[in-house]
Amino acid sequence: MNIEISEVANLPSRFGTFKIQTFKEGPKEHLVIFKEPLSAEPVVRIHSECLTGDAIGSLKCDCRDQLEASLACIEKEGGMVIYLRQEGRNIGLLNKVNAYALQDKGFDTVEANHQLGFEADERTYEVVETILKHFNITAIQLLTNNPKKLQGLKNITITKRLPIIILSNPHNKGYLKVKQEQMGHLL
Ligand SMILES: Nc1nc2c(ncn2[C@@H]2O[C@H](COP(=O)(O)OP(=O)(O)OP(=O)(O)O)[C@@H](O)[C@H]2O)c(=O)[nH]1
Ligand SMILES: [Zn+2]
User: Would you say the pTM of this structure is higher than 0.90?
Assistant: First the structure.
């Protein structure tokens, strides 16, 4: 896939002053938010888009808390947040809302995806390899609670997994339970 890369620009934010760059993969415009200096094994968060959580503040998941904790972390330590446009574990917003409607009827996150004809998780991470290569990064400390994340990547060494500790709320308890019991997350 041909990737179009933007210039680097400054991004002052409520979490610190970052640099920002876009990597356009077909219709998907992924974002890299980074804070220099980038060490030989920088802290990296691979964040999957969640418009409802990240922008609207939905309490059904832990995405916004994870994003904010990651930005605060790279402000302190240096590193990057790679914001991948894989809404709804890559089923898209319309399908995610349909999955939410099924969840309203009692299906859990995984069952709702299956009802709609999708795998529980439809994400892929090849573009991460392209992005890290662009920055000459071959080893990272990965901010995640998902030990299986990035397993498929050949040219990147994960030297350390850094957990993201987030408090649950009454609305995302079920979502977190499914992640822990069915998807192998360490919560
Ligand atoms: N299909 C579907 N996707 C969801 C649902 N809730 C959140 N998501 C998406 O899940 C993605 C985040 O994935 P998670 O499984 O929470 O976390 P992860 O990226 O595997 O692991 P961490 O690195 O620990 O965050 C985002 O793209 C959200 O839009 C849901 O109920 N159904
Ligand atoms: Zn979310």
Answer: yes
